[in-house]
Specification:
By secondary structure, this protein is of the alpha/beta class. The protein is 38% helix and 19% strand. Helix 6 packs across helix 7 and helix 9 runs antiparallel to helix 10. It binds pantoate (PAF).
C-alpha cells in the first residue's frame, strides 16, 4: 500500500485475490493499461474508468515484447513514484506493476498474432508491435478480469486492434475509447513528447495541423491521395524527417479507402522529428467532429 492509499501489486497471485474480494463485495472493475510516465491523457482515461466502475486498476508495465531491439525500451521514461501520486490524486485504487519475469516467466512461449485492423500503418514499420501489445493486453485482461478496459484514441490503430481481439476471442469485457487529450497548441499528449528539444516541441504541432488539413480538404471534396501528399509536404517543410505514413482509413475497419463515402473516416500519421517518432490521428468524413 502506498502512502497515498493506492495499492501497489506486483504478483498475479495477490492481484487475483484482491480482485476476487472486490467482486465478492459487489464492485465493478475497470482497467487502464499504461506503460507509465503518466500525463493528463492517461488521467483522463482514469477519470473515464472511475465513471464506469467502483474500482479502478491502472497497469504500469513497460512491455518489452512491443519494442524491437533498435527501439527505445531502455530509454522509455520511467517515473513510477510520480505516477503513483498522480493516479492516487485521480482517485484510482490499485496499480498493477508486474516485473518482466512475473509477466513473462521462464518458458513463456505463446503469442497472439492480430491481423485485420493490425494490417498496415504501424505494422508496416513496426511488424513486432501489435503482436506484443495484443499478447500483453490479453494477459492484462485475464489477470485483472475487468468489466471495461479504457484506451486513448491517440493510439487509434491500437484501440481498433483491442476491439477486434476482444470480439474475436470472446473476451468478457468492453473496450472503451477516449478522445485524445491535446496540449494548448494541439499537439497530442504522449509520454514520448519528453524526448523533444525546445525547437522540436514548437515544430511538433505540424503533425496535428497536417492531418486536420487532410480531414478538412477531403470534407471539401479534395482527392484523398492529393490531400495526403500535401500533408507529407507540410510535414517536411516543418522539419520532419522520415514520414512513415499519412493515410486515410475507414474509421471502423481501418481498411484503406480511395474515395469518400457515407462511412466515417480516420486520418492517421506517423513521422519522425529528430530522434522522436510522433503519431496522431483525427476523425474525418460524415459525422466527424474535431
Ligand atoms: O499504449 C500503451 O501504453 C501500451 O501499448 C499498452 C496498451 C499499455 C500495452 O503495453
Amino acid at each position: 500500500m502506498s502512502a497515498a492509499g493506492v495499492q501497489i501489486v506486483r504478483t498475479t497471485k495477490e492481484l487475483r485475490s484482491i480482485v476476487a474480494a472486490w467482486r465478492r463485495d459487489g464492485h465493478g472493475v475497470a482497467l487502464v493499461p499504461t506503460m507509465g510516465a503518466l500525463h493528463a491523457g492517461h488521467l483522463s482515461l482514469a477519470q473515464e474508468a472511475l465513471k464506469r466502475s467502483s474500482r479502478v486498476i491502472m497497469s504500469i508495465f513497460v512491455n518489452p515484447t512491443q519494442f524491437s531491439a533498435d527501439e527505445d525500451l531502455d530509454s522509455y521514461p520511467r517515473t513510477f513514484e510520480d505516477d503513483v501520486d498522480k493516479f492516487a490524486s485521480a482517485g484510482g485504487h490499485l496499480i498493477w506493476a508486474p516485473t518482466p519475469s512475473e509477466m513473462y516467466p521462464e518458458g513463456f512461449a505463446t503469442r497472439i498474432v492480430p491481423e485485420g485492423a493490425a494490417n498496415g500503418l504501424e505494422t508496416d514499420v513496426r511488424p513486432h508491435f501489435f503482436g506484443g501489445v495484443a499478447t500483453v493486453c490479453c494477459k492484462l485482461f485475464t489477470q485483472t478480469l475487468p468489466d471495461f478496459a479504457i484506451f486513448g484514441e491517440k493510439d487509434y490503430q491500437q484501440l481498433s486492434v483491442m476491439r477486434q481481439m476482444v470480439r474475436d476471442l470472446d473476451l468478457p469485457l468492453e473496450i472503451v475509447g477516449c478522445p485524445t487529450v491535446r496540449e494548448a497548441d494541439g499537439l497530442a499528449m504522449s509520454s514520448r513528447n519528453a524526448y523533444l528539444s525546445n525547437d522540436e516541441r514548437k515544430a511538433a504541432v505540424a503533425i496535428y495541423t497536417a492531418i486536420t488539413d487532410v480531414a478538412q480538404q477531403i470534407e471539401l471534396g479534395a482527392d484523398i491521395d492529393g490531400a495526403s501528399q500535401s500533408a507529407r509536404q507540410a510535414l517536411q517543410a516543418a522539419g520532419f524527417g522520415q514520414i512513415d505514413y499519412v493515410a486515410v482509413r475507414d474509421a471502423e475497419s481501418l481498411e484503406a479507402v480511395t474515395s469518400v463515402t457515407d462511412r466515417p473516416l480516420r486520418v492517421l500519421a506517423a513521422a519522425w522529428l529528430g530522434k522522436t517518432r510522433l503519431i496522431d490521428n483525427v476523425a474525418a468524413g460524415p459525422g466527424s467532429s474535431r
